[in-house]
């Protein structure tokens, strides 16, 4: 039987008897890279994820009732390879939590795996009692079989991601179902190598936690200096506004005049904190571009969308790509440069990040890139102000009343930035820079662990152990 892809002019010839038990006859499942991968793993002794698991299930299939207080509710977008972004998670009410199956809640040490969106991202649960949505699978490994940390690293490796990509089903939005997850092949690796990979993973988590702590220290220092350390805006149920204010703002939606939005600015005025509009610091302001979803590819140069921007950097979340030719046409105007501030303006407006390393990619129209006068204000300090309650409240006010949030460029340029002494700005920046360096160490350790898994499968365990030793000896813990 011959399978082909006319666009790529790539063909695979597979015997009818080799059609994976006859369960899959779609051409993509038999792409050459998948067949090669299957052959490599099958040449070694292996088990399946289902056979080594005492529990393998998905999360809640209901319609969650979100609440300001309650139980953390994790979706696939909240997961990364080193943990769960608790700050970015919604919460569900205690009443709704009682309706959820008990096996939808984590125990510390569980493997979590994304099954929709960016499929195949795995991590280890660091906390018990977190609720999982339907697009996150929960896996409990049987004792004395495999280290869960090894399994997670394996699933995040190039080999693991290819496996989950191959097993995913769907045309518009692909999904990974429990039956496919149970059938994922897990090569048997010695406990010695598994333990080394586990230690790399745990050290990566340690560095990641240190990075988060340093960033939190920077946030706390900013808020303390501004007198906003324990500030919580008070949202009023009823309030009035002057007609003249509505006319001058060209807004008549009630949400825009919510007193809570002005409360943070009033607090800063009480402290006699000098404030200037963002436009006073801007040297250049460039909105991104939207080439059209028909131009998206599975390989090429990254197309950086709002979902790829976090306060900590550019992340690989449901990454789309553009062709080399299109990238070359767009890079002059739409490629971020080191030192640029990337700021989201659509969907989740108000996320700012200072580009710290060279980036090859194009920003989408939902992002603006700013160059600012760093003789007037420190870039990291400015980005932190935007990410803090100061920027969040102003973005929320400007975007209030919209179904799909859009932060207009003229609104962005007018947001008020509090000015602390440059010496204080530098202290805050130093903490953020240390946070970034520590995060780099975490990523390096994780990448080394993933590469060791790949070497063990493609070459030998001895080569993998030598590779691990050559890198971990150079890491300063």
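-> sequence recovered:
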């Amino acid at each position: 039987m011959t399978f082909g892809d006319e666009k790529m002019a790539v063909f695979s010839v597979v015997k009818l008897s080799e059609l994976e038990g006859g369960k899959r006859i779609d051409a993509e499942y038999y792409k050459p890279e998948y067949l090669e991968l299957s052959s490599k793993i099958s040449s070694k002794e292996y088990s399946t994820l289902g056979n080594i698991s005492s529990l393998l299930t998905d999360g809640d299939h209901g319609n969650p009732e979100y609440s300001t207080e309650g139980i953390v509710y994790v979706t696939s977008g909240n997961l990364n390879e080193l943990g769960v972004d608790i700050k970015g998670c919604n919460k569900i009410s205690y009443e709704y939590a009682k309706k959820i199956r008990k096996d939808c809640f984590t125990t510390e040490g569980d493997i979590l795996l994304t099954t929709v969106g960016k499929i195949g991202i795995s991590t280890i649960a660091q906390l018990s009692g977190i609720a999982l949505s339907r697009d996150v699978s929960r896996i409990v490994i049987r004792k004395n079989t495999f280290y869960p940390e090894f399994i997670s690293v394996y699933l995040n490796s190039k080999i693991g991601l290819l496996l989950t990509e191959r097993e995913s089903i769907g045309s518009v939005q692909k999904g990974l179902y429990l039956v496919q997850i149970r059938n994922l092949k897990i090569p048997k690796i010695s406990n010695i190598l598994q333990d080394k990979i586990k230690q790399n993973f745990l050290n990566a988590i340690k560095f990641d936690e240190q990075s988060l702590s340093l960033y939190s220290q920077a946030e706390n220092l900013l808020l303390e200096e501004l007198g906003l350390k324990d500030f919580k805006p008070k949202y009023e149920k009823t309030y009035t506004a002057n007609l003249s204010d509505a006319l001058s703002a060209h807004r008549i939606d009630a949400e825009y005049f919510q007193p809570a939005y002005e409360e943070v600015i009033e607090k800063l005025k009480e402290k006699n904190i000098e404030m200037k509009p963002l436009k006073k610091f801007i040297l250049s302001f460039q909105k991104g571009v939207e080439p059209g979803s028909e131009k998206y590819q599975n390989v090429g140069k990254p197309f950086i969308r709002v979902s790829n921007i976090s306060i900590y950097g550019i992340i690989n979340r449901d990454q789309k790509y553009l062709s080399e030719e299109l990238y070359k046409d767009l890079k002059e105007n739409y490629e971020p440069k080191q030192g640029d501030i990337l700021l989201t303006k659509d969907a989740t407006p108000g996320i700012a990040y200072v580009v710290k390393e060279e980036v090859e990619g194009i920003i989408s129209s939902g992002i603006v890139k700013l160059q600012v006068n760093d003789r007037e204000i420190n870039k990291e300090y400015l980005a932190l102000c935007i990410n803090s309650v100061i920027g969040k409240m102003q973005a929320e006010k400007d975007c209030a009343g919209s179904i799909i949030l859009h932060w207009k460029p003229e609104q962005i340029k007018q947001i008020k930035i509090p000015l602390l002494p440059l010496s204080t700005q530098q202290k805050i920046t130093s903490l953020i820079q240390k946070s970034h360096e520590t995060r780099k160490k975490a990523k390096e350790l994780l990448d080394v662990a993933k590469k060791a898994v790949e070497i063990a499968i493609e070459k030998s365990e001895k080569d993998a152990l030598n590779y691990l030793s050559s890198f971990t000896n150079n890491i300063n813990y």
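The chain has three domains: 31-188, 192-212+431-477, 228-270+274-419.
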